[in-house]
Protein: Probable thymidylate kinase
Organism: Methanothermococcus okinawensis
Amino acid sequence: MANKFIVFEGIDGSGKTTQSKLLAEKINGKYTCEPTNGDIGKLIRDILSGKKCEKETLALLFAADRVEHVVDIEQHLKKTHIVCDRYVYSSMVYQAIQGIDLNFIMNINQFAKKPDILIFLDVDVEESFKRMNGKNKEIFENKEMLNKVRAKYYEIIKKRLFEPKYGYIKINTTGKSIEEVHDNILTELREKNIF
Ligand SMILES: Nc1ncnc2c1ncn2[C@@H]1O[C@H](COP(=O)(O)OP(=O)(O)O)[C@@H](O)[C@H]1O
Ligand SMILES: Cc1cn([C@H]2C[C@H](O)[C@@H](COP(=O)(O)OP(=O)(O)O)O2)c(=O)[nH]c1=O
Protein backbone atom coordinates (compact mmCIF):
# COMPACT_ATOMS: atom_id res chain seq x y z
CA MET A 1 0.00 0.00 0.00
CA ALA A 2 1.14 3.53 -0.77
CA ASN A 3 2.41 5.68 2.07
CA LYS A 4 -0.22 7.93 3.60
CA PHE A 5 -0.29 11.71 3.95
CA ILE A 6 -2.18 12.51 7.16
CA VAL A 7 -3.02 16.04 8.31
CA PHE A 8 -3.97 17.24 11.80
CA GLU A 9 -5.99 20.42 12.24
CA GLY A 10 -7.76 22.11 15.11
CA ILE A 11 -7.71 25.24 17.24
CA ASP A 12 -4.62 26.13 19.26
CA GLY A 13 -4.37 23.86 22.28
CA SER A 14 -6.48 21.09 20.74
CA GLY A 15 -3.52 18.71 20.95
CA LYS A 16 -2.35 18.66 17.32
CA THR A 17 1.37 18.68 18.05
CA THR A 18 1.07 16.09 20.82
CA GLN A 19 -1.13 13.74 18.78
CA SER A 20 0.61 14.11 15.42
CA LYS A 21 3.96 13.27 17.03
CA LEU A 22 2.45 10.26 18.83
CA LEU A 23 0.84 9.00 15.62
CA ALA A 24 4.03 9.51 13.57
CA GLU A 25 5.93 7.44 16.14
CA LYS A 26 3.27 4.73 16.18
CA ILE A 27 3.18 4.27 12.38
CA ASN A 28 6.91 4.89 11.83
CA GLY A 29 6.09 7.99 9.85
CA LYS A 30 7.66 11.42 9.62
CA TYR A 31 6.32 14.32 11.68
CA THR A 32 6.24 17.67 9.93
CA CYS A 33 4.54 21.00 10.61
CA GLU A 34 3.39 24.36 9.29
CA PRO A 35 4.61 27.03 9.55
CA THR A 36 7.76 25.07 8.65
CA ASN A 37 11.18 25.54 10.18
CA GLY A 38 12.48 26.95 6.89
CA ASP A 39 13.31 30.62 6.18
CA ILE A 40 9.73 31.54 5.22
CA GLY A 41 8.33 29.69 8.24
CA LYS A 42 10.66 31.65 10.54
CA LEU A 43 9.53 34.94 9.03
CA ILE A 44 5.90 33.88 9.56
CA ARG A 45 6.58 33.15 13.25
CA ASP A 46 8.06 36.65 13.69
CA ILE A 47 4.88 38.09 12.19
CA LEU A 48 2.65 35.93 14.43
CA SER A 49 4.62 37.21 17.42
CA GLY A 50 3.82 40.81 16.54
CA LYS A 51 6.01 41.95 13.61
CA LYS A 52 3.76 44.08 11.41
CA CYS A 53 2.50 42.66 8.13
CA GLU A 54 -0.49 43.07 5.82
CA LYS A 55 -2.93 40.15 5.93
CA GLU A 56 -2.56 39.60 2.17
CA THR A 57 1.22 39.31 2.58
CA LEU A 58 0.74 36.83 5.42
CA ALA A 59 -1.60 34.69 3.26
CA LEU A 60 0.99 34.68 0.47
CA LEU A 61 3.76 33.80 2.92
CA PHE A 62 1.81 30.79 4.26
CA ALA A 63 1.24 29.67 0.65
CA ALA A 64 4.92 30.18 -0.21
CA ASP A 65 6.02 28.25 2.87
CA ARG A 66 3.66 25.47 1.74
CA VAL A 67 5.18 25.33 -1.79
CA GLU A 68 8.54 24.46 -0.23
CA HIS A 69 6.89 22.09 2.24
CA VAL A 70 4.95 20.14 -0.41
CA VAL A 71 8.17 19.45 -2.35
CA ASP A 72 9.64 18.03 0.83
CA ILE A 73 6.49 16.01 1.60
CA GLU A 74 6.45 14.48 -1.92
CA GLN A 75 10.07 13.40 -1.46
CA HIS A 76 9.47 11.80 1.93
CA LEU A 77 6.25 10.07 0.85
CA LYS A 78 8.34 7.87 -1.43
CA LYS A 79 9.82 6.31 1.71
CA THR A 80 7.42 6.82 4.59
CA HIS A 81 4.06 8.04 5.91
CA ILE A 82 3.78 11.77 6.60
CA VAL A 83 1.96 13.22 9.60
CA CYS A 84 1.51 16.94 9.15
CA ASP A 85 0.66 19.36 11.98
CA ARG A 86 -1.49 22.04 10.19
CA TYR A 87 -1.79 22.44 6.44
CA VAL A 88 -3.83 24.29 3.80
CA TYR A 89 -7.00 24.02 5.94
CA SER A 90 -5.36 26.39 8.44
CA SER A 91 -5.10 29.00 5.67
CA MET A 92 -8.73 28.35 4.68
CA VAL A 93 -9.70 29.04 8.30
CA TYR A 94 -7.36 31.70 9.71
CA GLN A 95 -6.76 33.79 6.57
CA ALA A 96 -10.49 33.69 5.73
CA ILE A 97 -11.25 34.97 9.23
CA GLN A 98 -8.78 37.78 8.64
CA GLY A 99 -10.92 38.79 5.65
CA ILE A 100 -9.11 37.15 2.74
CA ASP A 101 -11.41 35.80 0.04
CA LEU A 102 -11.58 31.98 0.01
CA ASN A 103 -11.17 31.83 -3.79
CA PHE A 104 -7.96 33.82 -3.50
CA ILE A 105 -6.73 31.48 -0.75
CA MET A 106 -7.49 28.41 -2.90
CA ASN A 107 -5.83 30.01 -5.93
CA ILE A 108 -2.55 30.74 -4.21
CA ASN A 109 -2.63 27.22 -2.72
CA GLN A 110 -3.50 25.35 -5.89
CA PHE A 111 -0.24 23.36 -5.87
CA ALA A 112 -1.10 21.93 -2.42
CA LYS A 113 -1.19 18.14 -2.61
CA LYS A 114 -4.44 16.66 -1.31
CA PRO A 115 -3.88 14.66 1.87
CA ASP A 116 -5.29 11.15 2.35
CA ILE A 117 -7.05 12.09 5.55
CA LEU A 118 -7.72 15.09 7.75
CA ILE A 119 -7.96 14.51 11.48
CA PHE A 120 -9.77 17.41 13.11
CA LEU A 121 -9.20 17.57 16.86
CA ASP A 122 -12.10 19.34 18.47
CA VAL A 123 -11.97 20.82 21.94
CA ASP A 124 -13.97 23.11 24.13
CA VAL A 125 -12.51 26.63 23.89
CA GLU A 126 -12.35 26.92 27.70
CA GLU A 127 -10.35 23.70 27.92
CA SER A 128 -7.98 24.68 25.11
CA PHE A 129 -7.35 27.97 26.90
CA LYS A 130 -6.50 26.12 30.12
CA ARG A 131 -4.14 23.80 28.21
CA MET A 132 -2.31 26.79 26.73
CA ASN A 133 -2.07 28.59 30.04
CA GLY A 134 1.30 30.25 30.56
CA LYS A 135 2.37 29.86 26.97
CA ASN A 136 3.23 32.84 24.79
CA LYS A 137 0.06 33.97 23.11
CA GLU A 138 0.24 34.63 19.38
CA ILE A 139 -2.09 36.95 17.47
CA PHE A 140 -4.78 34.31 16.93
CA GLU A 141 -4.99 33.12 20.54
CA ASN A 142 -7.88 34.74 22.41
CA LYS A 143 -11.21 33.12 23.28
CA GLU A 144 -13.28 35.07 20.75
CA MET A 145 -10.85 34.15 18.02
CA LEU A 146 -10.70 30.49 19.10
CA ASN A 147 -14.51 30.30 18.83
CA LYS A 148 -14.44 31.79 15.34
CA VAL A 149 -11.69 29.40 14.25
CA ARG A 150 -13.57 26.41 15.63
CA ALA A 151 -16.76 27.42 13.77
CA LYS A 152 -14.82 27.90 10.53
CA TYR A 153 -13.32 24.40 10.77
CA TYR A 154 -16.85 23.02 11.20
CA GLU A 155 -17.90 24.91 8.07
CA ILE A 156 -15.06 23.49 5.97
CA ILE A 157 -15.87 19.94 7.05
CA LYS A 158 -19.60 20.41 6.48
CA LYS A 159 -19.03 21.84 3.02
CA ARG A 160 -16.41 19.15 2.30
CA LEU A 161 -13.94 21.74 1.07
CA PHE A 162 -10.69 20.29 -0.32
CA GLU A 163 -11.95 16.90 0.88
CA PRO A 164 -9.18 14.34 1.39
CA LYS A 165 -9.31 10.93 -0.31
CA TYR A 166 -10.50 9.17 2.87
CA GLY A 167 -12.45 12.16 4.17
CA TYR A 168 -12.36 13.74 7.61
CA ILE A 169 -12.11 12.28 11.09
CA LYS A 170 -13.45 14.50 13.87
CA ILE A 171 -12.42 13.66 17.41
CA ASN A 172 -13.74 15.38 20.48
CA THR A 173 -10.82 15.67 22.88
CA THR A 174 -12.58 17.60 25.67
CA GLY A 175 -12.10 15.81 28.99
CA LYS A 176 -10.04 13.04 27.39
CA SER A 177 -6.47 12.17 28.29
CA ILE A 178 -3.70 12.25 25.69
CA GLU A 179 -3.67 8.41 25.62
CA GLU A 180 -7.43 8.21 25.18
CA VAL A 181 -7.34 10.61 22.21
CA HIS A 182 -4.46 8.65 20.68
CA ASP A 183 -6.49 5.42 20.99
CA ASN A 184 -9.54 7.12 19.45
CA ILE A 185 -7.42 8.20 16.47
CA LEU A 186 -6.03 4.68 15.92
CA THR A 187 -9.54 3.20 16.13
CA GLU A 188 -10.93 5.67 13.58
CA LEU A 189 -8.03 5.09 11.19
CA ARG A 190 -8.54 1.32 11.42
CA GLU A 191 -12.28 1.72 10.84
CA LYS A 192 -11.52 3.59 7.64
CA ASN A 193 -9.13 0.76 6.67
CA ILE A 194 -6.25 3.17 6.33
CA PHE A 195 -3.86 0.97 8.27
N1 LIG B 1 -5.90 15.49 25.89
C1 LIG B 1 -5.19 16.38 26.58
N2 LIG B 1 -5.48 16.63 27.86
C2 LIG B 1 -4.78 17.54 28.58
N3 LIG B 1 -3.74 18.26 28.09
C3 LIG B 1 -3.41 18.06 26.81
C4 LIG B 1 -4.10 17.12 25.99
N4 LIG B 1 -3.54 17.13 24.75
C5 LIG B 1 -2.55 18.05 24.80
N5 LIG B 1 -2.44 18.60 26.03
C6 LIG B 1 -1.51 19.63 26.49
O1 LIG B 1 -2.01 20.87 26.01
C7 LIG B 1 -0.95 21.71 25.54
C8 LIG B 1 -1.18 22.03 24.06
O2 LIG B 1 -1.06 20.83 23.29
P1 LIG B 1 -0.46 20.83 21.83
O3 LIG B 1 -0.32 19.42 21.40
O4 LIG B 1 0.75 21.71 21.74
O5 LIG B 1 -1.68 21.53 21.04
P2 LIG B 1 -1.73 22.29 19.65
O6 LIG B 1 -0.56 21.79 18.83
O7 LIG B 1 -3.04 21.91 19.06
O8 LIG B 1 -1.66 23.75 19.97
C9 LIG B 1 0.33 20.94 25.81
O9 LIG B 1 0.87 21.38 27.03
C10 LIG B 1 -0.12 19.48 25.89
O10 LIG B 1 0.71 18.71 26.71
C1 LIG C 1 -0.41 26.80 8.63
C2 LIG C 1 -1.12 28.04 9.04
C3 LIG C 1 -1.12 28.47 10.35
N1 LIG C 1 -1.74 29.62 10.72
C4 LIG C 1 -1.69 30.07 12.13
C5 LIG C 1 -2.42 29.21 13.10
C6 LIG C 1 -1.64 29.35 14.40
O1 LIG C 1 -2.30 30.35 15.19
C7 LIG C 1 -0.30 29.89 13.97
C8 LIG C 1 0.93 29.10 14.30
O2 LIG C 1 0.72 27.81 14.45
P1 LIG C 1 1.38 27.02 15.65
O3 LIG C 1 2.02 27.97 16.61
O4 LIG C 1 2.15 25.93 15.07
O5 LIG C 1 0.02 26.48 16.22
P2 LIG C 1 -0.29 25.80 17.57
O6 LIG C 1 -0.26 26.90 18.60
O7 LIG C 1 -1.67 25.27 17.34
O8 LIG C 1 0.73 24.72 17.80
O9 LIG C 1 -0.36 30.04 12.55
C9 LIG C 1 -2.40 30.40 9.77
O10 LIG C 1 -2.95 31.46 10.09
N2 LIG C 1 -2.42 29.99 8.47
C10 LIG C 1 -1.81 28.85 8.05
O11 LIG C 1 -1.86 28.50 6.85
The first strand starts at residue 5 and ends at 9.
